[in-house]
Design goal:
heterodimer; A: alpha/beta; Aconitase, domain 3; 2 domains; 15 helices; 18 strands; 32% helix; B: alpha/beta; seven-stranded mixed sheet; 19% strand; globular; binds iron/sulfur cluster
């Protein structure tokens, strides 16, 4: 029997074939904690009596969740992180650098065949680079910082095969929302979700990362995509290890499969208060919107900002629209391409690279009764800081058109 | 380990945002403070109603959402002795054992009991006794049981100087 992508990466680490369900201990290539999880990690690390971080080059802190800080309590936690980083000589990406899941690949911590853990559930994003990458909690992270290893249960795998090509107003976000609607919020629990097919092959890295980012929204342990020339083009000049092409075997065993015909997809929405509550944008067309947010580790990348600027250039938004680039690198590119100027002129509030209002800490907490269209990945009750707000998840295209009209709008088909 | 306690019942997909909203967790790691908001998103008066040793019983996908370890910590800190659910999200599952909160997966018990019922969970036997019926559950893997018995991963490492999976 052939191997799935998850099995193959674990195989490369172990030097023998793993079997699903087996508990294995893997060495870690990159370990990240952010301001939401690092403080507890530090507490556990110190309480364990651990004295040093196993590898200064592989341990990373990022201040992105409430960044810059909005209150004294958070500032104190940020300070605690800076002190720990200084003491142990590890790299800390401070305010303004961007979101952890964007920074890790940009700075070369992620490579095909690597094992990446992050004290953040969306760490599955890095599977877009054929890295085995998964979210863990703070105490698990303390164990990794102390020992450089962690136990994993070898996951079973699900295959999502996307054939054909998307219509002009459909993006990878619509495809993943559709998939979550089919598989449901817990349909992939403990499993590796592997994306393949012509449509995936033709996606940019930015689009692929949208898919793997949201694997956790179906319960997935990781989301994985084979590495190819697109992966190589992104990683070249960033990673220190040689690039490898890694793909699943043709005869690999998947416990479940979902076939999607890309050409049949429409722009999709995830409706309050569950990500798997998925409907077509057309069903809600015309519903008034109070706030639009474009950003996050799902859709705050250059390709997303380009898409939005193309729609908004020379026009004006009708509702408050907040845009947060995913990283400093994204912001710099968007500045060079004059995207930021187009967005600001169109009336968008453009903010500091970081998580922004995604998790409800600051920078755009909605008020009770507000209807929000957001390009993020979660719409749980209270997610954006207000339990009485309605959050709809959508693609950047849908968000841009809806901002322009002040109401839910199916994007025009562009080519 | 035998646990006897009163049930508080919840539905499916109880996310970490419902267990402890993000707006609190970024501000402090003082667990007395955080525990005052436990389950606030699902039941705003929960923290004031419960007593030590009570048991949460829920539907599927309990603990889904973010990796915040504060979620199992506030549950434990508020005095809940064990969570029984139809299924758990995987990061929540790891986190709970790491901080010393036992979790039990049972497909059938959640539909059989109601808030206020008193049940007994026999962890090492893999059985739950409720209103005259017995429910079996898949025993907790050995190495997780050991972490639990040591009082969580921090205590475990302090005691042994290495992690159970390194042995
Ligand atoms: S952008 Fe949102 S989902 Fe992504 S890491 Fe930040 S808070 Fe989490």
């Amino acid at each position: 029997m052939g191997m799935t992508l998850a099995e193959k990466i674990i195989y490369m680490k172990l030097g023998r074939e793993p079997s699903p369900g087996e508990i294995v201990v893997l060495p870690i290539d990159a370990a990240m904690a952010h301001d939401g999880t690092a403080p507890l990690m530090i507490k556990s690390f110190n309480e364990m009596g651990a004295s040093r971080v196993w590898d200064m080059e592989k341990a990373i802190f990022v201040i992105d969740h409430i960044s810059p800080s909005s209150n004294e309590g958070t500032s104190a936690l940020h300070k605690m992180m800076r002190e720990f980083a200084r003491k142990h000589g590890i790299k800390l990406y401070d305010v303004g650098e961007g979101i952890c899941h964007q920074i890790l690949p940009e700075k070369g911590y992620v490579f095909p065949g690597g094992v990446v853990v992050g004290a953040d559930s969306h760490t599955c994003t890095h599977g877009a680079f054929a890295a085995f990458s998964t979210g863990i909690g703070s105490t698990d992270m303390a164990a990794v910082f102390a020992s450089g290893k962690l136990w994993f249960k070898v996951p079973e795998s699900i295959r999502i095969n996307i054939t054909g090509s998307f219509k002009g107003n459909v993006t990878s976000k619509d495809a993943i929302l559709h998939a979550i609607g089919e598989i449901k919020a817990d349909g992939a629990t403990y499993k590796s979700v592997e994306f393949m097919g012509e449509a995936v092959k033709n996606m940019s890295m930015d689009s692929r990362m949208v898919m793997t980012n949201m694997a956790i929204e179906m319960g997935g342990k990781t989301g994985l995509i084979a590495s190819d020339s697109t992966t190589r083009a992104f990683l070249e000049g960033r990673i220190k290890v040689p690039f490898r092409e890694i793909a699943a075997d043709n005869n690999a065993y998947y416990v479940d499969e979902l076939e999607i015909e890309a050409g049949k997809l429409e722009p999709m929405l995830s409706c309050p208060h569950q990500v798997d509550n998925v409907r077509a944008v057309s069903e809600l067309e015309g519903k008034p919107v109070d706030q639009v947010f474009i950003g996050s580790c799902t859709n705050g990348r250059l390709e997303d900002l380009r898409m939005v600027a193309k729609v908004l250039k020379g026009k004006s938004v009708k509702v408050r629209t907040i845009v947060m680039p995913a990283s400093k690198e994204v912001l710099l590119s968007a500045l060079r391409e004059e995207i930021i100027e187009d967005l600001v002129r169109a009336g968008c509030a453009v903010g500091v690279p970081g998580c922004g209002p995604c998790v409800g800490g600051h920078h755009g907490v909605p008020s009770p009764g507000d209807v929000v269209i957001s390009t993020t990945n979660r719409n749980f009750k209270g997610r954006m800081g207000c339990a009485e707000a309605e959050i709809y998840l959508a693609s950047p295209l849908t968000a841009a058109y809806s901002a322009l009209n002040g109401k839910f709008t199916v994007p025009e088909e562009v080519s | 380990m035998k646990i006897v306690g009163r049930v508080w019942k919840f539905g499916d997909d109880i996310s970490t945002d419902l267990i402890i909203p993000g707006k609190y967790k970024f501000k402090t790691i003082d667990f007395d403070e955080l525990a005052r908001h436990v389950m606030e998103g699902a039941d705003p008066s929960f923290a004031s109603k419960i007593s030590k040793g009570d048991i949460i019983v829920a539907g599927k996908n309990f603990g889904c959402g973010s990796s915040r370890e504060q979620a199992p910590i506030v549950i434990k800190h508020a005095g809940i002795s064990v969570v029984v659910a139809k299924s758990f999200a995987r990061i929540f599952y790891r986190n709970a054992f790491n901080i010393g909160l036992p979790l039990v997966e049972s497909k059938d018990l959640p539909d059989f009991v109601n808030s206020g019922d008193v049940i007994e969970v026999a962890l090492s036997e893999g059985k739950i006794y409720a209103k005259g019926r017995t429910f079996d559950f898949k025993p907790i893997p050995d190495f997780l049981m050991r972490i639990l018995e040591d009082g969580g991963l921090v205590e475990h490492f302090k005691k042994r100087g290495r992690f159970v999976w390194e042995e």
